[in-house]
Amino acid sequence: MRTLGNILWLIFGGIAMALAYALAGVVMFILIITIPFGIQAFKLAGFALWPFGRVMVDIPGKSGGCLTTLGNVLWVVLAGIWLAIGHLFWALILAITIIGIPFAVANVKLAGAALVPFGRTVMSKEAAEARNYQVVVGVEPLG
User: Fold this and answer.
1) Rounded Cα distance, 119 and 109, in Å
2) What pLDDT score does 127 carry?
3) pLDDT at 3
4) Rounded to whole angstroms, how far apart are CA atoms 98 and 87?
5) N vs C: which end of the chain shows fewer Cβ within 10 Å?
6) If you count DSSP H runs as helices and E runs as strands, how many of each does the chain have, helices first?
7) pLDDT confidence band for 143 (50 / 70 / 90)
């Protein structure tokens, strides 16, 4: 069911959002001083491209420090707010149809992930459960 959900996700906005994250990442890499933000953008691009069966978790020991908080604040200003708005746009478009509602819900969850990526990482749901990591954002298709 995850594979089918991810394939439908690609059609219903996943590719567009992944490209938006990748564009933000390329811009951040070009500016050199913002390379750490570009790394986060590419990490989120992968999550936005293939979200079902993967989760965003807090990195133990790195989720509450001053640098993490500063990075998240700067991220929101530089790219996070625009990427979150993109997810909310897709959520509104997809919520029009019954078939699109689960994808709209997933976009709302990913909008939250787009705002605060520092101190977090993306991994498979099974790996997160095996390590007892706290799941911050997880999207699952119906079924």
Assistant:
1) 17
2) 92
3) 86
4) 18
5) C
6) 7, 3
7) very low
Beta-strand ranges (E) seen in 33-142 are 54-58, 120-124, 135-138
Contact 68, 103 (CB under 8 A): no
For 122, the token pair is 């993306």
Tell me if residue 92 falls in helix, strand or coil: helix
Distance from the first to the final alpha carbon of the chain? 7
Q: Kindly list the strands in the beta sheet with 54-58, ordered across the sheet, starting from the edge strand earlier in the chain.
A: 120-124, 54-58, 135-138
pLDDT digits (tens, 9 = 90+) for 52-90: 989 999 888 766 788 888 999 999 999 999 999 999 999
Q: How far is CA 26 from the centre of its chain?
A: 17
**Residue 141 CB contacts under 8 Å (≥ 6 apart), including other chains:** 1, 2, 4, 5, 8, 52, 102
Read off the pLDDT of each residue in 94-102 and give the average, rounded to a whole number: 92
**Chain centroid to CA 49:** 9
